Amino acid sequence: MKTKRVLLKLSGEALSSNDKSICSESLQSIVEEIKPVLSKGIELSIVVGAGNIWRGAGKEIDRVSADKMGMLATTINAIALSDILKANNIKSIILSASGVTNFCDTFSQQKAEEYLSKGYVVVFAGGTGNPFFTTDTTAALRASEIKADVILKATQVNGIYTADPKKNPSAIKYDKITYQEAIDKKLKIMDISAFLLCMENNIAIYVFDFHKKGNLLKMLTNQNIGTIVS
Q1: Which of 38, 164, 198, 211 is most buried, taking the most CB atoms under 10 A from its CB?
Q2: Could you report the per-residue pLDDT of 91-143, keeping only the tens digit for each?
């Protein structure tokens, strides 16, 4: 695929290890995957989840409050990610939807596009700024706003399967699938709202194993790995 502007969707777990919610070695591994992509002149933005810190709560905490806590957790992850990029001499800026202006700038489409055009890695924090939306939907929304060519959905498996391949060894991998098929089959790789946004704005989603060294660059150099949703 020919790409100029990419949005990478990372889970919060990508920043963690078995005993640390945020692990410096995991952060450095992310940087090592990103460096070759930037050397190709690709404009990169990132949406990071919060699962390493916060996954919501039971009925004791209201859903709106729980989602606000999740937005704050994404900001913590974004700060860690942006700092490790800067430590590796990579220009980075955090733009947050939730308005925590003491920690990062507030998101706007214009700011994001300006920073991307200047070679910054733009890390989007704070979700959409509203409860009831996941960071998958945030990724689809931000990708639409910045006119990204593709969303790269980083996972721990090498694509989308008919079932969880870790639990069902007979699960079959899809090489390509349409947005509508993903919705109809109720595939859990992204939310329905994220699929619908990408379908409406014609943004392909590439699902791949981020934890295998070199896979990020392979996805952007037309090597046949992962699953394409388009």
Answers
A1: 198
A2: 999 999 976 767 899 999 999 999 999 999 999 999 999 999 999 999 999 99
- Between the two ends of the chain, the Cα-to-Cα distance in Å is 12
d(CA 134, CA 188): 13
* CATH 3.40.1160.10, domain 5-229, yes or no: yes
Distance, in Å, from the CA atom of 143 to the CA atom of 203, rounded to the nearest integer, reads 8
Query: Using CA atoms, how far apart are residues 134 and 201, in angstroms rounded to an integer?
Result: 19
pLDDT in tens, 61-88: 999 999 999 999 999 999 999 999 999 9
Task: Report residue 155 as tokens.
Answer: 């996972």
The residue extents of the domains of the chain are 5-229
Strand partners for 151: 7, 205
Structure tokens at 100: 């925590």
Which tens digits make up the pLDDT trace of 185-212? 888 889 999 999 999 999 999 999 999 9
Q: Which amino acid makes up residue 69?
A: M
